[in-house]
């Protein structure tokens, strides 16, 4: 069977299961039943799959054990955010976050245990990389959070620990299960992949999963500061990165993520440079999105969406968040320039679940 067995049973495609069941002497429809239990109903116990013969369930449990990471530790924030610490059988630790809102829940999941990109403003980057997560471990986070909070629908944010595009094959495999019509049947437009921007991987992502949305961790409007505080950016200069964004056919909405740091990247000059970059993505957006869907709710704005992020101070970090009044002035400057810009206030800061705070520990970063 041509599949990655290290990812576990959750990574198997319907065709994988059909080939396996053929060796059991089972009919193809049994494979479809099993896939539906795992990926549509999100049932991760063979014993509960009541339309499968008991003997088959026992054989599956023996040969393909479902061994989900332990999720015994959780913390709930004052704003309703819930963070879960998960431990895999080999001891790898990673976190997943439930984010409720009036418009529906978002599930923020990790793609790596740790991170190797060492961004100076991010606690996760101080950990180093333990290992990539498997497709099954990524999916389990989604299914676990959705089951835990009884969600019929949700958004999936690959914004937890790690760089998704550095674990490309496992991430693609997991997302293809999420959008599979016999699984969760998630719309790609309800999936957002966050990335610092790995050259070649963005266009590959667009080919593999047309319509999936991208959140580019930009944070600085020029290569100098960006490469100083985001070492990985030295390999991916902004000119090359934006060329790829413009030419990536099929990519869904692109959002430029911009962390506001007091006295570092929050001047009017920074806002002007950011507006120029936001307009630079527009040709790709107009080409890839049919006119009928061309952001009617953003009518009057002609540039890429910019998401301004409130910084969450870390004990070991040198930065402070931009004061709200100055952040609002920065946002208004972008709007006046025709850029659709929103300001995202911190969620889950009191439980170390906010942007840049995940460290797979039971306390706050640095505690």
Question: What are the defining features of this structure?
Answer:
12 strands, single chain, DNA polymerase, domain 1, 2 domains, alpha/beta, elongated, two-stranded antiparallel ribbon, TIM Barrel, ten-stranded mixed β-sheet, 11 helices, 32% helix
Question: Can you offer a commentary on this structure?
Answer:
- The protein is α/β, with parallel strands linked by helices and 367 residues long.
- It folds into two domains: 9-63, Orthogonal Bundle (DNA polymerase, domain 1); 70-351, Aldolase class I (TIM Barrel), CATH 3.20.20.
- 32% of the residues lie in helices and 17% in strands.
- It has eleven helices and twelve strands.
- It has helices at residues 14-24, 28-40, 54-63, 135-148, 168-179, 201-208, 223-229, 238-247, 268-280, 282-288, 324-336; strands at residues 70-76, 82-87, 93-99, 106-108, 112-115, 128-132, 155-158, 191-195, 213-217, 254-260, 305-310, 341-344.
- Strands 1-2-3-4-7-8-9-10-11-12 form a ten-stranded mixed beta sheet, covered by helices on one side. Strands 5-6 form a two-stranded antiparallel ribbon.
- α1 (14-24) crosses α2, α4 crosses α5 (168-179) and α9 packs across α11.
- The longest helix has 14 residues, at 135-148.
- The radius of gyration is 21 Å and the shape is elongated.
